[in-house]
Design goal:
Layout (H helix, E strand, L loop, with lengths): L19 H4 L8 H23 L4 E6 L10 E6 L8
Antiparallel strand pairs: 1-2
Length: about 90
């Protein structure tokens, strides 16, 4: 059996523009935007990716941990399985 591999990267670069006036507000939490990304946006994106891949019968996906913090990187392994044709 032979295994073929290909790498495909989607990279998100997150940026927040913070008005100067907010720095004067003692209640301002400069990490709120990152908390929203981690708690709501990123999990939704990952669920959508897994849902779409799993909608194809011969494809499966799982997360691979390579020792990098999941705050910085999430690797999704996507595998295609070929079925043997039925003998005639």
């Amino acid at each position: 059996m032979e295994k073929k591999e290909k790498t495909f990267t989607i990279r998100f670069s997150l940026t927040a523009t913070i008005p100067d006036a907010l720095w004067d507000d003692e209640d301002f939490d400069e990490d709120t935007w990152l908390d929203e990304w981690e708690a709501a946006i990123k999990p939704g994106l990952l669920r959508a990716v897994f849902s779409h891949i799993r909608s194809f019968s011969n494809w499966q996906a799982h997360i691979r941990n390579r020792g990098v913090s999941p705050l910085d990187e999430v690797e999704i392994v996507v595998e295609h399985y070929f079925e043997m044709p039925e003998p005639n």
